[in-house]
Amino acid sequence: MDIKSVPQDDSSTYANNKKAIYAKDENGEVKVVGSSGWEAEETVTKQALEDLEDSAKEAYCEVKKGLKSPLYYHMFAVRMDLQVLADSTGFFKWTIKRDFDPKRYENINENRLAVYAEAMGRTIEELKKLEELDYECK
Amino acid sequence: MSVNSFEHRHSAHCESGVMSSMLRHYGLDISEPMVFGLSSALTFAYLPFIKMGGMPLVAYRSMPKSIIKNIQKNLNVKMKLETFSKKEKGQARLDELLEEGKIVGAQTSVYWLPYFPDEMRFHFNAHNLLVYGKEGDNYHVSDPVFENPVVCDQASLSKARFVKGALAPKGLLYYPTDVPKEIDLKPIIKKSIKKTAKSMLGTPVPIAGLKGMKYLAKSISKLKSKDKRYAKLYLGHIVRMQEEIGTGGAGFRYLYASFLQEASTIYDNDQTLKEAADMFLEVGDNFRDFALMIAKSIKSKEPIDYKKISEKLTSIADQETKVYEKLLEFTGK
Fold it and tell me: Distance from A77 to chain B by nearest Cα, in Å?
């Protein structure tokens, strides 16, 4: 790719940052140039983000309906899934699933909650509750 | 309070960027492409049985730490790598090294670094950056994939260094203890090119190297029988693994082309290396076309032409085969 063709698409996903791309200058020498974004990359990053947001919204509604505990929503809200949450807490998946049960979650022990809080970067108080989202559940 | 003098450089890949900047700081002027090439970091693997967020692992990069380790071995640089069982110890050690005037490499998660744009914060634990100073509660960080140096608060950096899970950094810090001032690069260039070419061409398992790329192409052609939402996510995932932060299909081909140009200069303008560099630039362009083709089909309402996308990737693998064959003409088989 020529330096002239390095995309400068000002992608929102770059948030005014630049990415280093190696490209060919007029003498055929490959050098570093900053790229302000590329539409193709922005499309796939946004696609992944939307998928994560959709999961969080679906989880939010299930918690609202009393089908799942707030922990279930918070997991998706911090862009995790069951695998990542299990990896970052060291808990077995089946024990985490148990904590998705709203009834059981009410009596969860504080030490266990503290491990979740550390892994997810939220306070214990935040994890106990469901924040109000501006989102209409079906 | 200690901020050590240090020159930040913008790089295409985090680990090669850190190693290049670090070695330059300690007296060995070596470019990012040279580090990338000499550590045989260009690779490919498609591991359908390992899932990440429900998607198969498509790796366009070598294993984390492999650049550090290969540079250590090939350039005879002595490195010290330290990991920690406790966060407090890991933080105290970093401060101590900075006080001594060192600049220090660190492995971190991307998600907990506050200077990353929110849209780029995913749970990926094998990011690399350099810390070169501390003022109050803030670290001065040279993150190679950012254009300028950044600042990161102590709590966030510690959190990012001590996440648990896949590829957990365990607070990894690294820095050289002995850097040779002059190195005869010629034999190392030849050896590492040969290693890259042979492993891309000849891996016995069908999931790695160019065979792996063709296997991935085959899996794309099978997507037409799958749920369309999943198929689109799968295609998007391939492109993300290829083009997003620090991992690269096209990006790595351009980087490797730059390495081959530099190698050619060292070998008195060797023509074979020069031609191979141009061929890699073309392969890179084709990777970008492939990414664009996928991005368009994700956005479009029309049915996706999986066969066309699959054939594009197969043709890239064939094109790249020729480049490695050319490189073997240079290195000898």
Answer: 12
